[in-house]
Amino acid sequence: MLTGMGIPRRSQTISRALLLPAHKKSPTYQRWHVAPRNVPSNTALRYYTATPRNMIDKNTCPPLLSFTESLRGKSYLVTGGGRGIGYAITRAVAECGANVTVLDALPEPVPEFHKLASEFGVKTKFFRTDVTNPSMLESNFERSVQEMGGLHGCVTAAGIVEEHPFTDYPVEKLRRVLDVNVVGTFLTTQLAAKHFIRNSIAGSIVLIASVSAHMVTPNRKLSAYASSKAAVRMLTTAVAAELGSSGIRVNCISPGYINTDLLDNVRKIDPDSVSFMDRAPHIGRIGQPKDISAATVYLLSDAAGYSHGSEMIVDGGVLGGIFKDPRDL
Ligand SMILES: NC(=O)c1ccc[n+]([C@@H]2O[C@H](COP(=O)([O-])OP(=O)(O)OC[C@H]3O[C@@H](n4cnc5c(N)ncnc54)[C@H](O)[C@@H]3O)[C@@H](O)[C@H]2O)c1
After folding, report:
1. What is the position in ligand 1's atom list of the atom closest to the CA of 84?
2. Which residues are known catalytic residues?
3. 90-121 burial by CB neighbour count: b if 16+ within 10 A, else e?
């Protein structure tokens, strides 16, 4: 709190401020950019981030410390939630006390899925769905809304990877990657948006993109996948622009390297590549599916009420570039 800074330090700040150029004397600049000297770092952090009480609008300010609570009792839908990152998100949503439906092409989700309802006292449903099939997607989407009694948020995690050298990329494989990753994401987002608009719900949609939208992975032939994820990234911005005035929020998360079945093929073709993914992130390890779930819950929650059209990168620092000597990776 500003008042916690103590009178001497505060007057030091004010006297320093008198020597500043005009624009730096403004209360806003002072509040955000001028910290007193000799202040412990946690106090300085609070100084920078504190919002004066008279600036808090009780109608719009999110409940920061209880953001997971804002999901309780609501209903969510996760495509690709049958395993991997999508399942971790499904579990996290259930853990927040929300009902959750999974639409996935798998015949069955991971066995743990069936325990979520009793473990967290929520409703769960699994509908086998190919997100590239518009009529199947729509009918299972509607079934979910019926059985859950509504929908408040949606996560599109269904995705595939196909690796082929660019010059030999088979056109049918290219089409499949774009169909699942882009068209499937597009159609799911469209269904969710239409539902929210029809029912005047300020829903939240989270698209799963990838750091591949921004960077290449050494030795991997990911031209189709990378293009598809760049499309998801930009889809987020374009849809957010169209839907913002309706109160619907649309954001995306770009995971770095996450240890899931999706990496199994890479592991088979090139184990060195997985070893690179283990060591390249600055944080010193490959990501786990649950590394993505807290970020997703945040974006679904009321606490993210001013996040819109944004990309949250959750990558252990890999997008920052290779820090070590590449020969050591
Ligand atoms: N694992 C990573 O390193 C990584 C990194 C960045 C982004 N991602 C993205 O995260 C998402 C989840 O990936 P993951 O690593 O958990 O992979 P995964 O293969 O474990 O899970 C993907 C899920 O999508 C489902 N799916 C595939 N095609 C589908 C279709 N046509 N219709 C419905 N469901 C379909 C699969 O059955 C599977 O359950 C994907 O969009 C992926 O591109 C993954």
Report:
1. 16
2. 210, 225, 229
3. bbbbbbbebbbbbbbbeeebbeebeebeeebe
